[in-house]
Structure prediction request, 474 residues.
Amino acid sequence: MLELTSNKAHDESRQGEAYAPISHDLNKYRRKFYIESYGCQMNFSDSEIVASILNGNGFGATRNFEEADLILLNTCSIREKAEQTVRKRLTEFKKIKRKRPGMLVGVLGCMAERLKSKLLEEEKLVDLVVGPDAYRTLPQLVLEAESGQKAVNVLLSREETYADISPVRIDTNGISAFVSIMRGCNNMCSFCVVPFTRGRERSRDAHSILRECNELFEQGYKEVTLLGQNVDSYYWLDEHRDDLITFARLLEKVALITPLLRVRFSTSHPKDITDEVLHTIARYDNICKYIHLPVQSGSSRILQLMNRTYTREWYLAKVNRIRQLLPGCGLSSDVISGFCTETEDDHRDTLSLMEQCKYDMSYMFFYSERPGTLAARRYSDDVPEEIKKKRLQEIVDLQGRLSFESNKEDLGKIFEVLIEGDSKKNKEYWMGRSSQNKVIVFPKDRKDLKKGDYVKVHVSNCTQATLIGNVIDN
Ligand code: SAM
Ligand code: SF4
Prediction:
């Protein structure tokens, strides 16, 4: 499948990534677990919660599944391809299990509910099936599976936010971390399986979010991304103080921890992002000037079928408002080609909207019907696959041009960059991001710089995906 991959929300290069054992963990564990994660950032974040629960129950992480006592796949259902990848992987693990019968294999996350009986009983591929709200019961389920029982818990909850569990960070760059602020989704976009696999929306206790962000900063992290399917509808009542915390207020509280901690957030549903949020972003230098505002389609007719609750005009007015209140703000989107009944004219509307919005980046997909969704029940998936793919290719090509044009606009400008680590292509270069979320690489001329430092970089060259520059003295 064609997908633009350079993003954090659904980073193709991270699909199937194995959890890395933390290097400074001196604990001795009786047994080893191996976990692979698929799908969106929420899933990667959940794997960190699972790791924390397992560590507390005598399991240490390994990156080598051949030595694991427990293999877990944290799965995604968002598109058919994601499910196929996981099935293939399970078949491979089944072969290893023949050699090591004591080893347990478990499926976590979004595929759990829909495929539990198939995976457990029909295909006998797994020993445990655990839904996204049932990770606390994992140790008990392991015991049940060990005694030969079918270990399943796919109950969704209206309360579970894992607020009290400190995630054990997957061995990232040590500079930027994801912090889950809510779970589930109450929107009913007709193409989307998330409300069925992850349940109702619930917001996490604001105090625990602030505590986690504070701890991250103390551990040396310099950037947090607040995560949720629809962050702008974050809503938490502090009952002790009779105080209502909205997303704008949460954002402000996190920004106030220290100006040295950058704050990002994802994802914003266009219908929920308010002026109050935009004003808050404008007020604090450390809240990054970047908004991921998925449009999905540029045709009002298709948007209505998708149940996105806005029209093309309404969306464009929102983008204008962002440009007005936050000049120079980075903007990205999610786009789906070939949704039910999409005509060539609808597709042209998507392309023209993308041109108008001048997105810096997009995540682009062709429509994949998901069982149980509103669209699967109501509409016929009637756009032939080759047309979906052809339209997607046009969308990808257009985004490529828009990204390049956006990068060329930045030539000659100076950006504050947070250094995240070595450039992947050349170890003589640092790689970091601007507030607008653009990747910037620059030579390691100054020897006093290190990962986690902020520097000013003058941009002198660019590609479609990257800005290239030089450090200037502050
Ligand atoms: N909650 C976020 C939002 O509303 O923007 C994103 C949720 S989803 C994990 C990420 C993206 O996957 C969606 O924005 C959409 O573009 C894409 N997606 C979801 N369901 C899809 C489907 N059935 N076929 C193709 N793409 C899909
Ligand atoms: Fe899915 Fe829509 Fe919820 Fe995003 S807002 S998770 S696309 S239902």
About this structure: The longest strand covers residues 414-422.
